[in-house]
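Class, look over these structure tokens:
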Amino acid sequence: MKVYTPVSRKNIGEDRVAICPNFGCEYMTRVKPLKLRFLGFGKQPKCKKHRIPLVYVDEGIVDFVDAALACLFDKAGLPPRELFKSIKKQFPDEINSFIEGWIYCITIGRGISIISRYMDTVSNVYLKQLTKKQIKALKISKNIKPNLVNKAIKDGMDEIAIQYERILKHLRVHSEILNDQQKLQSLSKGLRKFLEEWQKNALKHNEIMNSTEIKRDMTLLEIKTNYDQILNVGTCRCLLGFKFESKEQKETGLTAFDRFSAYHDFYIEGLTTKFTKSDISALYSENVLINKLNNSPEECSDNMNEDKISVIKNKLKKIDWSKVSNCWQVRFRKNQYSNYKIIELDPNKECSQCNPLYKHKKWVKRVYYDTRFDMTDEKLAELCNITKLTANYWRRYKHGIIGKEKWGKGRWIDNRSGRIYVRISDDYNHPELKKNPSRKKTYRLEHIFIMEQYLANHPELDISRKYLIKGKYLKIECEVHHINFDPQDNKIENLWIYENKKAHSIGEKSIRKVFSELIMLGCILFSNGKYSLNQNFDLNFHSDPALKEFKNFQPISYQNINLNDIKEVIKKIKWYEISNDWKVIKRFNQFKNIIIDLNPYKDCSEENPLYMHKHWFSRIYNDPNLNLSDSKMGKICKISNDKARYWREKIHQIEGKKEWGKDKLIDKSDGRIWIRVPKSYSNPVVNKKDTHRRIMLEHRYIMEKHLSAHPEWGISKRTLEKGKYLKSDSEVHHINLNYQDNRLENLWVFEANDEHQEARRSLYKLVEKLMKLELIKFENGFYRLNY
């Protein structure tokens, strides 16, 4: 929990009001200054009920409201994905009314009424703690002398009013912007029964997780998942017209105020994310891209999963279940107070609520261990139309069926990279691989082994002769690349071979440029630290006239920059939109002047002296992508460096780039910008080896200044040291992947490198979908945007 300012009568000069930090406790007291300071009796007041130190109201109320808002508007409060899928499959006509009703009930189901009651109690009890003189001072504070006003009391009351206003503003946004009440409709009886069954199963699973039999140490994320499940049940109950807290929920031993206290921890640890209008819109248009994919020859992964489930159902009907078991009856009871009922199952029919085959141990065991199905808890849940948690509970705790290992003895996954290793035969004798004689088993990366086998079977190919040793083994310096960036998709058509690591890195860098272009086009969105496809992106963007301008000007890479490339880029600029007058007066001497018509689409020369035109000179000199200096301007214009500087400074009066090379540098290895900082700047990530070059990355410096200016933000508290400097573990990310675009709106800060890597993985997971949509292509080892 947060470390508060210690409540002590010894260090305050005026009366202050303190409250118990346990949300829901109404204990509050007025703390008076200690007159006899050498006496320590009662100097640190505690709650009489919970025996914990009190906190000042202006601190405790802020944390309560932060926790309350994080709870009410957490993205986890949106309809659970498994529930959403089930309703979409069984009640497709009511999916929109279900979403709108669920959004409407979120705040009520997650306890807004308790929050209002708590805030009212705090404000009323607060006023009771004040004396008549203090209340009078509050009322006439503007006309009374400052030394007579109890500032601490006034600040506490103001803070309560401010935090109350915060809650009301968020509720107004929810009712007016996030929710359309005109779309609210009553649910059908079938959907209501389905939701009632869902909430019973959810509460039953929560009861199991909190039981003494399965009690274990859980991570904060696991605890949050259980809490969210209880809160979602409350939202579901409100949707059905019931009170948000049922008897079963109260039996879990978790009060609403306990949840807010826990949510304060979740909020501090950054586990909560507020949902927005775009998140709600995504629910309506979740399958827009998938539907478009269905029109193409290849199918999307979700539809493939549905097809797999239908295939499994057909195969299950062909099994002779009489050999599996003679008895297909199961005992079932709704709760601990009701009696057991015997249900007759039919294994030749599909699993459903009327035919809950997942409750039969032999049926689950037969299906789960069938090698043809490659069954998992997630597949079992889809097969039985239940949640994944319910499937896991019945398999693991009820039936005692042990979970399968991911792979067999000869095949396993590297947890760090996700790549697959396979065991190879003992006669495999690669001349460049060092073999450990003490180990009988030899393992090799599966995609490399598959490429070796393929090339060995096709000796007529040029790459086979080039990359194989003895026509059988792949050279150790060669790199095998997964085209769709899925390390477990080892089909030969998904593999590409590079000569060495350098060629591999160049090929992978091409996808970075493609990603940057798609982000600028709006096809890829970045939200809450992760990338996703824009569901509303027009796949026929090729005909968009704005794309022509996008195609005409492509920034030149800082690594491959040369004069010829710069000249080609200069010619592609729309010069007649910059200036209509392309005439200059060239003076030979004091008696002779000549008017010259310039052509900005040709190279600069003596006959076409473009450097004399101020708009032309200013446009290319100040272009950050070209990064031109006086010497480069001289080479482009075919004049001397001094003459180029003269025309820039004296004639055109354009300010020079004095900071480059002195106070500002570009890292040639990756293109990131370094800046020089003062000696007094004591950030631990500053390069201090060279006292004359105290440098740090510009994007970190910009983010540092921005966060330090907002110390009230939770991210500032978590990522800054001393409220001023970014921690060494914090990572600043460029959203559009352009390392030289250090605008604040293009930067995002991560608390740790793990979160940064997760964002990168979310981006590379989109490659397969983008290739299916034919937005990008892979040709000759390079990725490119398919215009």
